[in-house]
Write a structure and sequence with these properties.
2 copies of one chain form a homodimer.
Chain A lengths: L1 H7 L4 H8 L5 E2 H7 L5 H13 L3 E6 L5 E6 L1 H4 L1 H17 L10
Antiparallel strand pairs in A: 1-3, 2-3
The first copy, chain A, binds a DNA duplex (30 and 30 nucleotides) through helix 4.
Chain lengths: 105, 105
DNA sequence: GATCTGCCTTACCTTTTGGTAAGTACCTTA
DNA sequence: TAAGGTACTTACCAAAAGGTAAGGCAGATC
């Protein structure tokens, strides 16, 4: 389980993922524009990590100037419902009465 | 979503959670023994964070020597299936053919 | 031959996170 | 009066994560 969480840790990974969900394929520079606050170093670092984890797919077109696109693998796409489960858990926070108990024996 | 992940970040939180799932209530010292690698500082830090996030419940018995127990809130318990979703996603890693594509235009 | 474009890489620094070791408070028991 | 048991706190240090700024490559264009 810790390993699973490690796959998603990193300040930009989720943001990148949400841009790529739904089969979107984006160029490096598109991601840069879509996520203005990220630096090139961080963007590539997180993309590379997710690539080596098998979540993200890197598509190189040998051109000059270079063209590289990023998309999700099938497995990466399959993450979507699992993240939804977490989101709906989070959404139930207010709904569930806060368990305030202080026995104070 | 980033906020949701933040709730679970921290080297010991998941380990603590898994000890507490199923309605388990444990004393501070029990958790220490159950997780030998954790230091007191880290244990209390992560417990406190999860407590203020509403995941963990702290039960103080006013005795000498002190007795403090930790359990999950209802909302904390509800995390279990969401984590299961992540786990089963991870389990499908091998099963799903690794999408190896390199168009190389 | 200088410049531009797109995708990185590198060096260096700051912030955050985690770890160790020691100390505190309180009352009970020896 | 000294020692002990439990649940913390504190001061200090190391490692990891993240950020900034600059540079490199390869060829097409001016």
């Amino acid at each position: 389980m810790e390993n699973v969480l490690k796959l998603l840790e990193g300040r930009w990974k989720l943001i990148i993922l949400f841009h790529l969900f739904g089969g979107n394929v984006m160029r490096f520079s598109e991601l840069e524009r879509a996520i203005p606050a990220v630096s090139q170093k961080m963007l590539i670092q997180q993309l590379r990590q997710m690539e080596s984890d098998g979540i993200v797919r890197r598509i190189v077109h040998h051109q000059v100037p270079p063209k590289v696109e990023y998309g999700l693998t099938d497995w990466g796409q399959a993450l979507c419902p699992a993240l939804d489960a977490l989101l709906s858990w989070a959404a139930r926070r207010e709904e569930m009465a806060p368990t305030t108990s202080l026995p104070d024996t």
